[in-house]
Amino acid sequence: MKADLVLKNGWVVTPQQTFKGGVAISNGVFVTIGTNDSLPDGNRVIDVKEKHILPGLIDAHVHFRDPGMTHKEDFATGSTAAVCGGITTIVDMPNVIPPTENAEQVGVKKRIAESKSLCDFAVLGVIHQTNSADILPMARAGAIGYKIFFGETIGNLPFPDDGMCIEVFSNITESKLPLCVHAENRQIQHYWTNKIKAEGKSDPIYWEQTRPYLCEAEGVSHLIFFAENFKTKLHIVHASTKQAAWMVRDAKARGLRVTAETGPHYLLREPSDMAKVGPLLKMNPPIRGKEHADVLWDGLLNGYVDMIATDHSPHTLEEKGCDINGKMLKPAIWDCISGFCGVETSVPLMLTEVNKGRMTLNHYVKIASENPAKVWQMYPKKGAIALGSDGDVTIVDMDKEGTIDPRKLHSKNVPTPWGGWKVKGIPIGSIVRGHIQMWDGEPVGKAIGQMQTPILNA
Ligand code: DOR
Ligand code: ZN
What is the pLDDT of residue 155? Predict the structure, then answer.
Protein backbone atom coordinates (compact mmCIF):
# COMPACT_ATOMS: atom_id res chain seq x y z
CA MET A 1 0.00 0.00 0.00
CA LYS A 2 1.20 3.50 -0.80
CA ALA A 3 2.05 5.81 2.10
CA ASP A 4 0.55 9.32 2.12
CA LEU A 5 3.93 11.02 2.13
CA VAL A 6 7.46 9.71 1.70
CA LEU A 7 10.58 11.75 2.38
CA LYS A 8 13.59 9.97 0.94
CA ASN A 9 17.27 10.46 0.35
CA GLY A 10 17.88 12.46 3.51
CA TRP A 11 19.82 12.13 6.75
CA VAL A 12 17.44 11.10 9.51
CA VAL A 13 18.51 12.57 12.86
CA THR A 14 17.45 11.27 16.27
CA PRO A 15 19.08 11.91 19.64
CA GLN A 16 20.87 8.54 19.29
CA GLN A 17 21.97 8.42 15.66
CA THR A 18 22.06 9.86 12.15
CA PHE A 19 21.46 7.58 9.18
CA LYS A 20 20.91 7.90 5.47
CA GLY A 21 17.35 7.27 4.32
CA GLY A 22 13.96 8.70 5.07
CA VAL A 23 10.52 8.30 6.56
CA ALA A 24 7.03 7.42 5.37
CA ILE A 25 3.90 8.93 6.92
CA SER A 26 0.32 7.64 6.62
CA ASN A 27 -2.78 8.80 8.47
CA GLY A 28 -0.63 11.37 10.26
CA VAL A 29 1.88 8.97 11.83
CA PHE A 30 5.26 7.48 10.90
CA VAL A 31 4.77 4.07 9.27
CA THR A 32 8.30 3.41 8.01
CA ILE A 33 11.67 4.79 9.10
CA GLY A 34 14.76 3.48 7.42
CA THR A 35 17.11 3.31 4.47
CA ASN A 36 15.88 4.45 1.04
CA ASP A 37 15.43 0.83 -0.02
CA SER A 38 13.11 0.12 2.88
CA LEU A 39 10.69 2.98 2.17
CA PRO A 40 7.31 2.23 0.55
CA ASP A 41 5.99 4.07 -2.47
CA GLY A 42 3.93 7.14 -1.65
CA ASN A 43 1.12 9.27 -3.01
CA ARG A 44 3.62 12.03 -2.65
CA VAL A 45 7.35 11.32 -2.67
CA ILE A 46 9.88 14.04 -1.96
CA ASP A 47 13.59 13.62 -2.57
CA VAL A 48 15.06 15.83 0.16
CA LYS A 49 18.46 15.75 -1.54
CA GLU A 50 20.63 14.81 1.43
CA LYS A 51 19.11 17.42 3.73
CA HIS A 52 18.57 16.52 7.40
CA ILE A 53 15.22 15.14 8.55
CA LEU A 54 14.68 16.09 12.21
CA PRO A 55 11.81 15.19 14.51
CA GLY A 56 9.35 18.11 14.44
CA LEU A 57 10.87 20.83 16.61
CA ILE A 58 8.91 22.19 19.57
CA ASP A 59 8.86 25.68 21.04
CA ALA A 60 7.38 25.14 24.48
CA HIS A 61 7.12 28.83 25.35
CA VAL A 62 5.28 31.25 23.09
CA HIS A 63 2.82 34.09 23.62
CA PHE A 64 0.44 34.04 20.65
CA ARG A 65 -1.76 36.69 22.38
CA ASP A 66 -5.06 35.20 21.29
CA PRO A 67 -7.67 36.08 22.54
CA GLY A 68 -7.60 39.70 23.61
CA MET A 69 -4.21 41.02 22.51
CA THR A 70 -4.43 40.26 18.82
CA HIS A 71 -3.04 43.65 17.85
CA LYS A 72 0.32 42.14 18.87
CA GLU A 73 -0.03 38.61 17.38
CA ASP A 74 -2.75 36.02 16.83
CA PHE A 75 -2.82 32.28 16.34
CA ALA A 76 -2.73 32.59 12.54
CA THR A 77 0.29 34.88 12.39
CA GLY A 78 2.08 33.28 15.35
CA SER A 79 1.70 29.75 14.00
CA THR A 80 2.77 30.92 10.54
CA ALA A 81 5.94 32.33 12.09
CA ALA A 82 6.38 29.03 13.95
CA VAL A 83 6.23 26.74 10.90
CA CYS A 84 8.36 29.18 8.89
CA GLY A 85 10.94 28.88 11.66
CA GLY A 86 10.86 25.08 11.60
CA ILE A 87 8.58 24.64 14.64
CA THR A 88 5.76 22.07 14.40
CA THR A 89 4.31 22.24 17.95
CA ILE A 90 4.08 25.11 20.42
CA VAL A 91 2.98 25.55 24.04
CA ASP A 92 0.99 28.76 24.39
CA MET A 93 1.11 30.99 27.45
CA PRO A 94 -2.04 32.01 29.34
CA ASN A 95 -1.49 35.77 29.86
CA VAL A 96 -4.16 36.74 27.35
CA ILE A 97 -7.43 38.65 27.79
CA PRO A 98 -9.39 37.12 29.42
CA PRO A 99 -6.63 35.02 30.98
CA THR A 100 -6.70 31.26 30.42
CA GLU A 101 -7.74 30.75 34.05
CA ASN A 102 -10.57 28.20 33.98
CA ALA A 103 -11.91 25.29 31.95
CA GLU A 104 -14.10 27.56 29.84
CA GLN A 105 -11.12 29.64 28.72
CA VAL A 106 -9.11 26.50 27.90
CA GLY A 107 -11.99 25.63 25.58
CA VAL A 108 -12.06 29.14 24.13
CA LYS A 109 -8.38 28.98 23.28
CA LYS A 110 -8.74 25.47 21.84
CA ARG A 111 -11.45 26.67 19.46
CA ILE A 112 -9.52 29.79 18.44
CA ALA A 113 -6.34 27.85 17.78
CA GLU A 114 -8.06 25.00 15.94
CA SER A 115 -9.58 27.51 13.56
CA LYS A 116 -6.32 29.36 12.88
CA SER A 117 -3.21 27.34 13.72
CA LEU A 118 -0.80 25.96 11.14
CA CYS A 119 1.03 23.97 13.83
CA ASP A 120 -0.04 21.74 16.70
CA PHE A 121 -0.39 23.44 20.05
CA ALA A 122 -0.83 22.88 23.77
CA VAL A 123 -2.52 25.22 26.23
CA LEU A 124 -1.43 26.25 29.74
CA GLY A 125 -3.76 27.51 32.45
CA VAL A 126 -2.68 30.39 34.68
CA ILE A 127 -2.98 30.04 38.46
CA HIS A 128 -3.41 33.06 40.72
CA GLN A 129 -4.80 33.89 44.15
CA THR A 130 -8.43 33.04 43.49
CA ASN A 131 -8.66 30.13 41.07
CA SER A 132 -7.23 27.10 42.88
CA ALA A 133 -10.64 25.44 42.39
CA ASP A 134 -10.13 25.66 38.63
CA ILE A 135 -6.96 23.56 38.62
CA LEU A 136 -8.52 20.13 38.18
CA PRO A 137 -11.29 21.33 35.80
CA MET A 138 -8.62 22.86 33.55
CA ALA A 139 -6.84 19.50 33.44
CA ARG A 140 -10.11 17.83 32.48
CA ALA A 141 -10.55 20.44 29.72
CA GLY A 142 -7.24 19.37 28.19
CA ALA A 143 -4.67 21.85 29.54
CA ILE A 144 -1.12 20.54 29.24
CA GLY A 145 -0.07 22.18 32.52
CA TYR A 146 -0.11 25.38 34.56
CA LYS A 147 1.78 28.63 34.80
CA ILE A 148 2.30 31.06 37.65
CA PHE A 149 3.79 34.49 36.97
CA PHE A 150 5.70 35.24 40.18
CA GLY A 151 7.59 37.94 38.32
CA GLU A 152 5.78 41.02 37.13
CA THR A 153 4.85 40.64 33.51
CA ILE A 154 2.54 41.55 30.66
CA GLY A 155 -1.08 41.39 31.82
CA ASN A 156 -0.12 42.12 35.45
CA LEU A 157 -1.55 38.84 36.63
CA PRO A 158 -1.54 38.50 40.42
CA PHE A 159 0.24 35.46 41.83
CA PRO A 160 -0.89 33.23 44.71
CA ASP A 161 0.62 34.19 48.09
CA ASP A 162 2.60 31.58 50.01
CA GLY A 163 -0.46 30.53 52.02
CA MET A 164 -2.50 29.98 48.89
CA CYS A 165 0.46 28.16 47.30
CA ILE A 166 -0.15 25.36 49.81
CA GLU A 167 -3.53 24.76 48.20
CA VAL A 168 -2.30 25.43 44.68
CA PHE A 169 0.73 23.11 44.77
CA SER A 170 -1.32 20.36 46.35
CA ASN A 171 -4.06 20.58 43.69
CA ILE A 172 -1.51 20.74 40.89
CA THR A 173 0.22 17.62 42.16
CA GLU A 174 -3.15 15.87 42.14
CA SER A 175 -3.65 16.89 38.51
CA LYS A 176 -0.37 15.09 37.54
CA LEU A 177 0.42 18.02 35.23
CA PRO A 178 3.57 20.15 35.45
CA LEU A 179 3.58 23.67 36.83
CA CYS A 180 5.81 26.16 35.08
CA VAL A 181 6.88 29.28 36.89
CA HIS A 182 8.15 32.71 35.97
CA ALA A 183 10.44 32.79 38.98
CA GLU A 184 11.36 36.35 39.88
CA ASN A 185 10.96 37.84 43.34
CA ARG A 186 8.83 40.98 42.96
CA GLN A 187 10.08 42.60 46.18
CA ILE A 188 13.70 42.39 45.06
CA GLN A 189 12.68 43.60 41.62
CA HIS A 190 10.78 46.60 43.02
CA TYR A 191 13.61 47.55 45.37
CA TRP A 192 16.20 47.63 42.58
CA THR A 193 13.90 49.26 40.05
CA ASN A 194 13.17 52.11 42.47
CA LYS A 195 16.85 52.50 43.31
CA ILE A 196 18.04 52.59 39.69
CA LYS A 197 15.24 54.98 38.75
CA ALA A 198 16.08 57.27 41.68
CA GLU A 199 19.66 57.39 40.43
CA GLY A 200 18.30 58.75 37.15
CA LYS A 201 19.60 55.83 35.08
CA SER A 202 17.12 55.52 32.24
CA ASP A 203 19.16 54.09 29.35
CA PRO A 204 18.53 50.53 28.08
CA ILE A 205 21.88 49.41 29.44
CA TYR A 206 20.54 49.66 33.01
CA TRP A 207 17.71 47.18 32.49
CA GLU A 208 19.62 44.20 33.85
CA GLN A 209 20.43 45.99 37.10
CA THR A 210 16.74 46.29 37.97
CA ARG A 211 16.48 42.52 38.18
CA PRO A 212 19.84 41.24 39.45
CA TYR A 213 20.55 37.51 39.67
CA LEU A 214 19.16 37.30 43.22
CA CYS A 215 15.75 38.18 41.89
CA GLU A 216 15.55 34.94 39.88
CA ALA A 217 17.66 32.84 42.23
CA GLU A 218 15.47 33.56 45.26
CA GLY A 219 12.35 32.79 43.23
CA VAL A 220 13.71 29.46 42.02
CA SER A 221 14.87 28.33 45.44
CA HIS A 222 11.51 29.27 47.01
CA LEU A 223 9.58 27.32 44.38
CA ILE A 224 11.79 24.24 44.45
CA PHE A 225 11.10 24.21 48.21
CA PHE A 226 7.35 24.11 47.55
CA ALA A 227 7.71 21.57 44.74
CA GLU A 228 9.80 19.28 46.92
CA ASN A 229 7.28 19.40 49.76
CA PHE A 230 4.27 18.78 47.55
CA LYS A 231 6.01 16.49 45.02
CA THR A 232 4.93 18.81 42.22
CA LYS A 233 6.39 18.58 38.70
CA LEU A 234 8.07 21.99 38.47
CA HIS A 235 9.42 23.60 35.32
CA ILE A 236 11.48 26.80 35.43
CA VAL A 237 10.77 28.88 32.34
CA HIS A 238 13.35 31.21 30.80
CA ALA A 239 16.20 30.38 33.20
CA SER A 240 18.69 33.23 32.89
CA THR A 241 21.13 32.74 35.78
CA LYS A 242 23.78 30.23 36.70
CA GLN A 243 22.25 29.99 40.17
CA ALA A 244 18.90 28.86 38.71
CA ALA A 245 20.64 26.27 36.53
CA TRP A 246 22.65 24.94 39.46
CA MET A 247 19.59 24.69 41.70
CA VAL A 248 17.79 22.70 39.01
CA ARG A 249 20.84 20.45 38.69
CA ASP A 250 20.86 19.85 42.46
CA ALA A 251 17.11 19.24 42.56
CA LYS A 252 17.42 16.64 39.80
CA ALA A 253 20.26 15.00 41.72
CA ARG A 254 17.89 14.71 44.71
CA GLY A 255 15.43 12.90 42.46
CA LEU A 256 12.94 15.75 42.07
CA ARG A 257 10.97 16.23 38.88
CA VAL A 258 12.33 19.73 38.34
CA THR A 259 13.15 20.90 34.80
CA ALA A 260 14.26 24.10 33.12
CA GLU A 261 14.39 25.87 29.80
CA THR A 262 16.52 28.70 28.51
CA GLY A 263 16.40 30.72 25.31
CA PRO A 264 18.82 31.70 22.54
CA HIS A 265 18.97 35.27 23.89
CA TYR A 266 20.38 34.10 27.24
CA LEU A 267 22.97 31.96 25.44
CA LEU A 268 24.12 34.33 22.72
CA ARG A 269 23.59 37.91 23.92
CA GLU A 270 25.12 40.11 26.60
CA PRO A 271 23.75 43.06 28.60
CA SER A 272 26.07 45.41 26.70
CA ASP A 273 24.12 44.54 23.52
CA MET A 274 21.36 46.74 24.89
CA ALA A 275 23.52 49.71 23.97
CA LYS A 276 23.25 48.57 20.34
CA VAL A 277 19.71 47.25 19.98
CA GLY A 278 18.12 49.12 22.88
CA PRO A 279 14.56 48.21 23.87
CA LEU A 280 14.46 45.46 21.21
CA LEU A 281 16.42 43.28 23.65
CA LYS A 282 14.37 44.23 26.72
CA MET A 283 13.07 41.00 28.22
CA ASN A 284 12.10 39.64 31.62
CA PRO A 285 14.23 38.18 33.02
CA PRO A 286 16.97 40.34 31.49
CA ILE A 287 19.92 39.24 29.39
CA ARG A 288 22.91 38.59 31.66
CA GLY A 289 26.68 38.31 31.46
CA LYS A 290 28.82 35.53 30.03
CA GLU A 291 29.34 33.80 33.39
CA HIS A 292 25.62 32.96 33.34
CA ALA A 293 25.50 32.03 29.66
CA ASP A 294 28.44 29.64 30.13
CA VAL A 295 26.60 27.71 32.83
CA LEU A 296 23.34 27.64 30.84
CA TRP A 297 25.29 26.14 27.91
CA ASP A 298 26.88 23.62 30.25
CA GLY A 299 23.41 22.74 31.55
CA LEU A 300 22.07 22.19 28.06
CA LEU A 301 25.02 19.99 27.14
CA ASN A 302 25.00 18.02 30.36
CA GLY A 303 21.30 17.52 30.93
CA TYR A 304 20.44 19.86 33.77
CA VAL A 305 18.91 22.52 31.53
CA ASP A 306 16.37 20.48 29.62
CA MET A 307 15.41 22.52 26.58
CA ILE A 308 15.53 25.56 24.36
CA ALA A 309 12.31 27.62 24.32
CA THR A 310 12.01 31.12 23.01
CA ASP A 311 9.49 33.08 25.12
CA HIS A 312 8.25 34.49 21.80
CA SER A 313 6.58 37.68 23.06
CA PRO A 314 5.63 40.06 20.26
CA HIS A 315 4.56 43.68 20.78
CA THR A 316 4.04 46.59 18.43
CA LEU A 317 7.05 48.82 17.85
CA GLU A 318 5.08 51.62 19.44
CA GLU A 319 4.73 49.55 22.62
CA LYS A 320 8.42 48.64 22.39
CA GLY A 321 9.18 52.36 22.23
CA CYS A 322 11.74 52.08 19.45
CA ASP A 323 12.19 51.79 15.71
CA ILE A 324 12.94 48.52 13.91
CA ASN A 325 16.67 49.03 14.51
CA GLY A 326 16.20 49.58 18.24
CA LYS A 327 16.59 53.37 18.41
CA MET A 328 14.75 54.32 21.60
CA LEU A 329 11.93 56.75 20.91
CA LYS A 330 10.65 57.08 24.48
CA PRO A 331 12.34 58.96 27.32
CA ALA A 332 13.35 55.94 29.39
CA ILE A 333 13.76 52.17 29.17
CA TRP A 334 10.94 51.93 31.78
CA ASP A 335 8.50 53.24 29.18
CA CYS A 336 9.33 50.44 26.72
CA ILE A 337 7.52 47.14 26.99
CA SER A 338 9.33 43.90 27.67
CA GLY A 339 9.49 40.97 25.20
CA PHE A 340 10.36 40.29 21.56
CA CYS A 341 9.78 37.74 18.79
CA GLY A 342 11.65 34.45 18.89
CA VAL A 343 9.68 31.55 17.44
CA GLU A 344 10.93 32.07 13.88
CA THR A 345 14.58 32.76 14.64
CA SER A 346 15.49 30.15 17.26
CA VAL A 347 16.14 27.19 14.95
CA PRO A 348 18.53 28.96 12.54
CA LEU A 349 20.34 30.59 15.47
CA MET A 350 20.84 27.26 17.22
CA LEU A 351 21.72 25.39 14.00
CA THR A 352 24.42 28.01 13.51
CA GLU A 353 25.82 27.00 16.91
CA VAL A 354 25.64 23.34 15.83
CA ASN A 355 27.62 24.25 12.71
CA LYS A 356 30.18 26.00 14.92
CA GLY A 357 30.63 22.73 16.81
CA ARG A 358 28.98 23.86 20.02
CA MET A 359 26.81 20.71 20.07
CA THR A 360 25.87 17.86 17.76
CA LEU A 361 22.71 17.90 15.70
CA ASN A 362 21.69 14.79 17.64
CA HIS A 363 21.91 16.70 20.91
CA TYR A 364 20.04 19.62 19.41
CA VAL A 365 17.03 17.44 18.55
CA LYS A 366 17.08 16.18 22.12
CA ILE A 367 16.81 19.69 23.61
CA ALA A 368 14.51 21.08 20.91
CA SER A 369 12.15 18.16 20.37
CA GLU A 370 12.47 15.11 22.62
CA ASN A 371 12.93 16.91 25.94
CA PRO A 372 10.15 19.51 25.50
CA ALA A 373 7.80 16.67 24.54
CA LYS A 374 8.84 14.72 27.62
CA VAL A 375 8.61 17.63 30.06
CA TRP A 376 5.13 18.53 28.80
CA GLN A 377 4.04 14.87 28.69
CA MET A 378 3.43 14.75 24.95
CA TYR A 379 6.12 12.09 24.35
CA PRO A 380 6.28 9.84 22.35
CA LYS A 381 3.32 11.19 20.34
CA LYS A 382 5.48 14.29 19.85
CA GLY A 383 9.25 14.60 20.02
CA ALA A 384 10.23 11.37 18.28
CA ILE A 385 10.83 9.90 14.87
CA ALA A 386 9.41 6.53 15.85
CA LEU A 387 6.82 4.16 14.41
CA GLY A 388 3.34 5.32 15.43
CA SER A 389 4.50 8.78 16.59
CA ASP A 390 2.94 11.83 14.94
CA GLY A 391 4.47 12.40 11.51
CA ASP A 392 6.06 15.72 12.47
CA VAL A 393 9.28 16.60 10.69
CA THR A 394 11.53 19.61 10.39
CA ILE A 395 13.79 19.45 7.33
CA VAL A 396 16.92 21.56 7.63
CA ASP A 397 19.63 22.59 5.22
CA MET A 398 22.78 22.72 7.33
CA ASP A 399 24.78 24.44 4.55
CA LYS A 400 22.32 27.20 3.75
CA GLU A 401 23.38 30.64 4.90
CA GLY A 402 21.31 33.73 5.49
CA THR A 403 20.89 36.95 7.42
CA ILE A 404 17.97 37.51 9.78
CA ASP A 405 15.78 40.24 8.34
CA PRO A 406 12.98 41.54 10.60
CA ARG A 407 10.95 42.55 7.56
CA LYS A 408 10.81 38.94 6.41
CA LEU A 409 9.47 37.48 9.66
CA HIS A 410 5.87 36.27 9.60
CA SER A 411 4.66 37.58 12.96
CA LYS A 412 2.08 40.37 13.07
CA ASN A 413 4.69 42.59 14.69
CA VAL A 414 8.36 41.92 14.29
CA PRO A 415 10.42 43.45 17.09
CA THR A 416 13.56 41.33 17.17
CA PRO A 417 17.05 41.89 18.54
CA TRP A 418 18.40 39.45 15.92
CA GLY A 419 18.18 41.67 12.81
CA GLY A 420 21.39 41.40 10.75
CA TRP A 421 22.59 38.19 12.46
CA LYS A 422 24.27 35.83 10.07
CA VAL A 423 23.08 32.24 10.26
CA LYS A 424 24.19 28.96 8.73
CA GLY A 425 21.68 26.11 9.00
CA ILE A 426 18.13 26.95 8.00
CA PRO A 427 14.81 25.07 8.20
CA ILE A 428 13.43 24.45 4.71
CA GLY A 429 10.42 22.25 5.46
CA SER A 430 7.93 21.89 8.32
CA ILE A 431 5.58 18.91 8.30
CA VAL A 432 2.82 18.47 10.87
CA ARG A 433 1.23 14.99 11.01
CA GLY A 434 2.05 14.52 7.35
CA HIS A 435 0.77 17.95 6.27
CA ILE A 436 3.39 20.11 4.58
CA GLN A 437 3.00 23.45 6.36
CA MET A 438 6.16 25.28 5.25
CA TRP A 439 8.40 24.77 2.23
CA ASP A 440 11.45 26.83 1.35
CA GLY A 441 10.64 29.35 4.06
CA GLU A 442 7.10 30.06 2.92
CA PRO A 443 3.85 28.95 4.60
CA VAL A 444 2.01 26.50 2.34
CA GLY A 445 -0.48 24.77 4.63
CA LYS A 446 -3.90 25.27 6.14
CA ALA A 447 -5.11 25.61 9.72
CA ILE A 448 -4.86 21.94 10.67
CA GLY A 449 -3.43 22.47 14.18
CA GLN A 450 -4.65 20.12 16.89
CA MET A 451 -4.58 20.62 20.64
CA GLN A 452 -2.19 18.26 22.40
CA THR A 453 -3.37 16.79 25.68
CA PRO A 454 -1.08 15.14 28.20
CA ILE A 455 -0.10 11.48 27.99
CA LEU A 456 -0.14 10.71 31.69
CA ASN A 457 2.44 8.40 33.23
CA ALA A 458 4.65 9.27 30.25
O1 DOR B 1 9.59 40.06 28.84
C2 DOR B 1 8.65 39.30 28.93
N3 DOR B 1 7.54 39.45 28.19
N4 DOR B 1 8.75 38.27 29.78
C5 DOR B 1 7.73 37.44 30.02
O6 DOR B 1 7.90 36.54 30.80
C7 DOR B 1 6.43 37.66 29.37
C8 DOR B 1 6.56 38.42 28.15
C9 DOR B 1 5.29 38.94 27.51
O10 DOR B 1 4.19 38.39 27.72
O11 DOR B 1 5.42 39.89 26.72
ZN1 ZN C 1 6.87 34.13 28.58
Answer: 80
